[in-house]
């Protein structure tokens, strides 16, 4: 982002500086004065809100001046606009230029990497967090303020506070419970600047895949392709082919446009194909395209299943193809949008076919034939002298339309490219040469540029001309320089410039080069180009195993190279894990993509400035048009955003300030520290001094390991390219096991013996005896068989587990001597590795139905855990959970609910009211920051003023104010209630509240109830208020919240109305609302009766407690939230009743918290308002900022588990498994505050006896291929 301006006063002045800078970083400013007519001085000052920094000060400039100086950008904490002031003074010259630049606060680059993307329950997750400084990609002392781990239900199950990094790396681990919920877990970290990064992994009960399926199928099929070949291959992770069968299904999808369907009865068709893999693990099939019913356009979906011989294990693969009548695709690539008259115009055309003849046309100028190479590419270069300095259109095509039959034809589409001439008044040009490939980051690079300078544009007798270049990288000026060439005023000057890009590694991923010169008449000649550079990082890291293959159990060495004093995190992961759950690879490119700026482009809105474009093109001049004046902007403009003049080179393409002409006197206007390979990963944290060798034992698994590493050091960050180690031996046995079994469930154990030796061998396979299971040979099975080279045989047993937990299964395969022939070969014994023994464990679980009994006791007490009479032996487990804040999890996004009110009188209140209760909640829990408070108050003030515009003269409110015939009763009460709640935060004129109250009093009927008058458009705002009783209760509660006394005549009448309706307590919503109203009124007898009735109607959801409408077993939406919230308000707004303490309220809070959506709210405005009001009141009742509680759980045998809850971990979900599943546990809480404790007893029960009177089965027949699809459904009843 370069700011560049030309100041003209018989001389030319230029100043360049990046338009966006980072606080604390060193930037460069360049100043240039060309041919001063008198001694001059220049002062360049950077002005911010609180300081002025003189960047350059130079006096007595009498000849050409060019100087670049570094300067330190002031540190800022928020994005700030500063100005660069340029002052040039002389005896006759006094010029000033002020331009805005943007200073951004420095940012850190954060990333998280776990040792693998998926875990099993009970495993330990290891995570590395890294923090890099944006400017240098280096690491220094830093820390993470908070790191938290959340389970799939958003429970915070892990927490780390104020953890310091080692050279930028923080290693964390968390042991997952064997009972951990399956699903996606999220680890989120905040650094000291509150920057946030999140990373996810999965917990799942899985069996690793043994092989992967790859499909070779054309991605584009044309109407001329009568047949295509489908090739399906399967390979084990260690690289060997899979022998088995392939079932493939190819389905056509016809485009649904009427002109694409020549016949109305054309339907989508699916065809199935079967294959067998050969010695290479592949199967092929030629597909006749006419079978699939495609004639002009559509797509194909291919799904394949490969079943391994012997085991029945199946893996899937899929791909798709486009079916088109376009015989060939042609496009222009790497072709400029502008040309420079007199200079070669170069580009290339790409096509979807090789060796294809293409016709390239420029109307009335060029008509040439190109032929694509083996890559489908054709290059071209044209002389532009005959292009008349006007826009031209390039067209390329492969031929015409050839119709081969009625339905199928092939079509050769054309490619188009519009090119504009580059504008130069003097016909002088400069053009950078594109590099043929990415520049190497390990050596300097040479940049070349060609120029044409007209002699008529030079000063008489001028012998030399200076060219200047600027190199931008990552948004900053990285290099600059000046080049002088010889020129002659009597002719056209042509030549080439060359200069070097130094330290390309520091410029990656792009070097943005701008080259320019300024002619004596003030015209600038320039060009710019982005040069891609190989992605590389400051710390050169490499990783290599001592050998690419190794035997399982063998010792191997891992060589790691990095810059001295590096701290490295290394992991090796089983390729099978990546097949199960692929993840993005960490490499140099992915790290560089995290940079805030890779290519400078466009201007931030807050530093846009209006300046004139002096470069008007003859074909662009429109009669009576406004002067060419536009913003310095990144917004697209049809003419000036193309790089077809010098103005736009500096201004838009590279986000640079354009060349601006200022006139004085009139002139011419121109490591994660893991153990050995004990799971599917390895790792270590090590301080490396150049190189280190780490010895490891290869795990006893036949697979491929993918190893990677990243390192940090004072030099910077680095990532090693991935390296592989294949753990393999030519003779081995592999077991096929499920993830888990049910005790006494029978399954077939399959052991596959693989022989990759050059000769056949006789193999004897033995299953070791174990008291953990019973085993029987399968019928007709033999356990000594011949296995020839590149083959496998599978052996089977019938296994029945007899114990719970992990059951170990051991199988031994031995090559034995035999006189029998294997095929036509004599059996041989291998010289080494004659036996292979493998042991795997399978999890045996309790059978059938799972029960959980939750017991919540948030006070000192004893809890008895007992089992029913009938349960599965050894299945009982007990857990205790401690949590300091029930609402913390659900209300974590509450700040996202803050919104600016707008719209009509109803819409405005929909957004105004929630802001009040958000503030109340945040304030009651000590989470209200000045920034959030200022934002919320701004919204409240705006909403208050807006709502007053919808007030009627009589004090009531409606959607459109005085445009409506009258105010609305409910809306007026809602406004009155909300204004009363907002009084503690903003100024509310009491007259507005009083006038609303007086209007409502005029709507009171003789029986004390209130009449519903006026129109309400958004009736859903009212929630459950739907009749005279609920409306009266709502208004009465609103008046009581405002402090209206019970003795007020209006209040006495309304309470009389409500007492008369309280006898009908069949409506749960009415009962809940009345319970809150009479609580506010202080009528304890009515309150007691209503709450007791509600307690009888309460429903339980585990720990949660809630209310539904009559006969609704499950909650149905916002009405249930609103009712439950009113009950909570009733409990908390008056004295505590026996049996209705905070522990009772905690159950309601638990259920309400689980109903919150991802944005912090609930289903509707009314339930959100009432629920937030209730939750805020609950948090105020329990929150103690200085409180700390110690909870001790003592087992029947005297063993103790202790938990501490304080302000730092009150959101942490703490859980432990109890030592004894049953018995009486003593619970003791000491300290000050409130804590939630939950006991859970898990056990299994036997399945109920099968009492079904009959069985029913259904089968579907094949769908016929007709215009109206049909199939046969067969139902069988026994």
How do the helices and strands line up, and which of them pair or pack?
Layout: E1 2-8, E2 12-18, E3 20-22, E4 26-34, E5 40-47, E6 52-61, E7 65-72, E8 80-89, E9 94-104, E10 108-114, E11 118-119, E12 124-133, E13 143-150, E14 156-164, E15 169-175, E16 183-191, E17 196-203, E18 211-216, E19 220-222, E20 227-236, E21 244-254, E22 270-276, E23 282-288, E24 298-308, E25 314-324, E26 330-333, E27 338-339, E28 345-351, E29 357-362, E30 366-371, E31 377-382, E32 392-397, E33 402-403, E34 409-410, E35 414-421, E36 429-432, E37 445-453, E38 464-473, E39 476-486, E40 493-501, H1 504-507, E41 510-518, E42 524-532, E43 542-545, E44 549-550, E45 555-561, E46 566-574, H2 575-580, H3 588-592, E47 610-612, E48 629-631, H4 646-653, E49 661-663, E50 685-688, E51 691-697, E52 703-712, E53 717-719, E54 723-727, E55 731-736, E56 740-742, E57 747-755, E58 761-767, E59 773-777, E60 784-787, E61 791-801, E62 805-816, E63 821-822, E64 825-826, E65 835-845, E66 849-856, E67 861-865, E68 877-883, H5 905-924, H6 930-948, H7 969-982, H8 990-1002, H9 1028-1041, H10 1049-1061, H11 1068-1081, H12 1084-1097, ...
Parallel strand pairs: 1-49, 3-9, 11-17, 19-25, 27-35, 44-54, 56-65
Antiparallel strand pairs: 1-2, 2-4, 4-7, 5-6, 5-8, 8-9, 10-12, 12-15, 13-14, 13-16, 16-17, 18-20, 20-23, 21-22, 21-24, 24-25, 26-28, 28-31, 29-30, 29-32, 32-35, 33-34, 36-37, 37-40, 38-39, 38-41, 41-42, 43-45, 45-51, 46-50, 46-52, 47-48, 52-53, 52-54, 55-57, 57-61, 58-60, 58-62, 59-61, 62-65, ...
Helix pairs in contact: 5-6, 5-7, 5-15, 7-8, 7-9, 9-10, 9-11, 11-12, 11-13, 13-14, 13-15, 14-15
């Amino acid at each position: 982002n370069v700011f560049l301006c030309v100041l003209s006063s018989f001389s030319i002045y230029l100043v360049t500086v990046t338009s966006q800078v980072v606080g604390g970083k060193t930037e460069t400013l360049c100043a240039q004065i060309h041919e001063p007519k008198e001694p001059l001085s220049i002062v360049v000052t950077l002005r911010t809100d609180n300081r002025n920094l003189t960047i350059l000060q130079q006096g007595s400039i009498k000849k050409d001046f060019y100087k670049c100086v570094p300067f330190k950008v002031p540190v800022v904490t928020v994005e700030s606009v500063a100005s660069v002031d340029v002052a040039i003074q002389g005896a006759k010259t006094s010029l000033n230029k002020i331009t805005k630049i943007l200073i951004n606060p420095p940012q850190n680059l954060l990333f998280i990497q776990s040792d693998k993307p998926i875990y099993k329950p009970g495993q330990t997750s290891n995570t590395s967090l890294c923090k890099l400084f944006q400017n240098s990609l280096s690491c220094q002392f830093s820390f993470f303020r908070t790191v938290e781990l959340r389970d799939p239900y958003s429970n915070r199950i892990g927490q780390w506070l104020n953890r310091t990094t080692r050279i930028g790396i923080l290693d964390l681990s968390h042991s997952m419970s064997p009972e951990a919920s399956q699903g996606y877990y999220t680890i989120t970290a905040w650094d000291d600047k509150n920057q946030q990064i999140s990373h996810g992994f999965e917990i799942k009960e899985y069996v690793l895949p043994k092989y992967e399926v790859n499909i070779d199928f054309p991605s584009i099929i044309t109407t001329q392709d009568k047949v295509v070949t489908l090739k399906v291959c399967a390979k084990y992770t260690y690289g060997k082919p899979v022998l088995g069968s392939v079932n493939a299904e190819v389905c056509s999808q016809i485009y649904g446009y009427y002109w694409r369907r020549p016949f109305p009865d054309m339907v989508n068709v699916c065809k199935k194909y079967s294959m067998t893999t050969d010695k290479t693990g592949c199967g092929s099939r030629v597909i006749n395209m006419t079978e699939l019913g495609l004639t002009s356009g559509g797509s194909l979906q291919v799904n394949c299943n490969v079943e391994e011989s012997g085991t029945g294990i199946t893996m899937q693969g899929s791909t798709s193809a486009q079916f088109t009548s376009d015989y060939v695709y042609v496009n222009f690539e790497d072709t400029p949008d502008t040309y420079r008259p007199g200079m070669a115009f170069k580009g290339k055309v790409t096509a979807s076919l090789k060796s294809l003849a293409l016709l390239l046309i420029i109307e009335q100028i060029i008509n040439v034939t190109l032929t694509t190479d083996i890559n489908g590419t054709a290059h071209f270069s044209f002389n532009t002298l005959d292009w008349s300095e006007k826009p031209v259109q390039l067209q390329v095509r492969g031929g015409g339309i050839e119709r081969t039959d009625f339905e199928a034809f092939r079509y050769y589409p054309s490619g188009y490219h519009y090119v504009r001439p580059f504008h130069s008044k003097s016909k002088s040009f400069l053009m950078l040469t594109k590099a043929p490939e990415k520049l190497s980051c390990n050596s300097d690079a040479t940049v070349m540029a060609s120029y044409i300078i007209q002699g008529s544009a030079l000063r008489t007798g001028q012998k030399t001309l200076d060219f200047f270049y600027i190199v931008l990288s990552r948004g900053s000026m990285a290099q600059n320089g000046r080049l002088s060439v010889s020129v002659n005023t009597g002719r056209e000057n042509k030549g080439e410039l060359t200069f070097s890009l130094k330290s390309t590694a520091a410029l990656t991923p792009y070097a943005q080069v701008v080259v320019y010169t300024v002619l004596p008449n003030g015209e600038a000649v320039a060009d710019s180009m982005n040069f891609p550079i190989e992605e590389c990082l400051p710390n050169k890291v490499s990783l290599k195993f001592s050998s690419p293959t190794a035997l399982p159990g063998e010792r191997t060495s891992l060589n790691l190279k990095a810059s001295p004093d590096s701290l490295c995190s290394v992991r090796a992961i089983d390729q099978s894990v990546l097949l199960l759950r692929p993840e993005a690879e960490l490499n140099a490119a992915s790290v560089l993509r995290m940079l805030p700026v890779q290519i400078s482009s466009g201007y931030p809105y807050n530093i846009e400035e209006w300046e004139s474009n002096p470069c008007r093109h003859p074909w662009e001049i429109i009669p009576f048009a406004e002067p060419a004046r536009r913003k310095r902007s990144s917004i697209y403009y049809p003419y000036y955003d193309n790089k077809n003049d010098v103005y736009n080179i500096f201004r838009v393409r590279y986000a640079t300030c354009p060349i601006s002409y200022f006139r004085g006197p009139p002139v011419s206007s121109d490591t994660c520290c893991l153990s050995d390979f004990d799971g599917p990963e390895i790792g270590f944290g090590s301080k490396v001094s150049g190189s280190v060798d780490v010895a490891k034992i290869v795990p006893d698994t036949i697979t491929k390991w993918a190893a990677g590493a990243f390192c940090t050091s004072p030099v910077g960050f680095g990532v090693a390219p991935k390296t592989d180690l294949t753990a393999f031996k030519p003779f081995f046995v592999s077991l096929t096991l499920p993830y888990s079994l049910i005790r006494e469930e029978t399954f077939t154990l399959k052991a596959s013996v693989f022989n990759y030796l050059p000769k056949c061998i006789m193999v004897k396979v033995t299953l070791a005896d174990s008291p953990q299971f019973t085993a029987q040979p399968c019928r007709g099975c033999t356990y000594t068989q011949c296995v020839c080279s590149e083959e496998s045989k599978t052996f089977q047993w019938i296994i029945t587990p007899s114990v719970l937990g992990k059951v170990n299964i051991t199988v031994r395969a031995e090559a034995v001597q035999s006189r029998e022939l294997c095929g036509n070969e004599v059996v041989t014994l291998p010289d080494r590795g004659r036996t292979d023994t493998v042991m795997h464990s399978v999890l045996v679980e309790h059978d059938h139905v799972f029960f959980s009994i939750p017991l919540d006791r948030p006070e000192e007490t004893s809890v008895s855990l007992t089992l029913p009479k009938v349960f599965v032996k050894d299945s009982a487990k007990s857990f205790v959970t401690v949590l300091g804040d029930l609402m913390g999890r659900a209300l974590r996004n509450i700040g996202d609910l803050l919104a600016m009110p707008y719209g009509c009188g109803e819409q405005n209140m929909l957004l105004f009211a929630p802001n009040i209760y958000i503030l109340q909640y945040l304030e009651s829990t000590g989470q209200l920051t000045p920034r959030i408070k200022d934002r919320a108050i701004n919204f409240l003030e705006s909403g208050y003023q807006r709502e007053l515009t919808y007030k009627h003269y009589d004090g009531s409110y409606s959607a459109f104010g005085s445009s409506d015939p009258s105010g609305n009763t409910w809306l007026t009460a809602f406004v009155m209630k909300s204004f009363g709640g907002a009084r503690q935060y903003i100024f509310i004129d009491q007259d507005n509240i009083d006038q609303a109250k007086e209007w409502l009093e005029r709507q009171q009927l003789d029986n004390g109830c209130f009449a519903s008058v006026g129109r309400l458009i958004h009736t859903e705002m009212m929630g459950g208020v739907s009749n005279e009783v609920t409306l009266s209760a709502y208004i009465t509660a609103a008046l009581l919240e405002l402090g209206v006394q019970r003795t007020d005549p209006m209040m006495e009448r309304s309470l009389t109305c409500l007492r008369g309706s309280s006898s009908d307590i069949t409506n749960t919503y009415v009962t809940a609302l009345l319970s809150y109203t009479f609580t506010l009124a202080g009528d304890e007898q009515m309150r007691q009766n209503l709450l007791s009735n509600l307690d009888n109607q309460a429903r339980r959801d585990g720990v949660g407690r809630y209310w539904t409408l009559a006969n609704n077993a499950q909650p149905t939406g916002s009405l249930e939230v609103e009712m439950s919230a009113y009950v909570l308000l009733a409990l908390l707004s008056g004295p505590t009743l026996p049996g209705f303490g905070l522990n009772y309220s905690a159950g309601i809070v638990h259920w309400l918290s689980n109903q919150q959506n991802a944005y912090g709210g609930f289903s509707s405005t009314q339930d959100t308002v009432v629920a937030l009001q209730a939750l805020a009141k609950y948090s105020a009742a329990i929150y103690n900022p200085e409180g700390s509680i110690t909870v001790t759980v003592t087992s029947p045998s005297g063993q103790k588990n202790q938990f501490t809850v304080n302000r730092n971990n009150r959101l942490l979900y703490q859980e432990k498994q109890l030592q004894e599943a049953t018995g009486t546990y003593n619970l003791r809480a000491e300290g000050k505050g409130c804590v939630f404790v939950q006991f859970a007893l898990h056990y299994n029960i036997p399945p109920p006896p099968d009492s079904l009177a009959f069985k029913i089965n259904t089968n579907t027949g094949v769908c016929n291929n007709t215009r109206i699809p049909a199939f046969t459904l067969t139902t069988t009843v026994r």
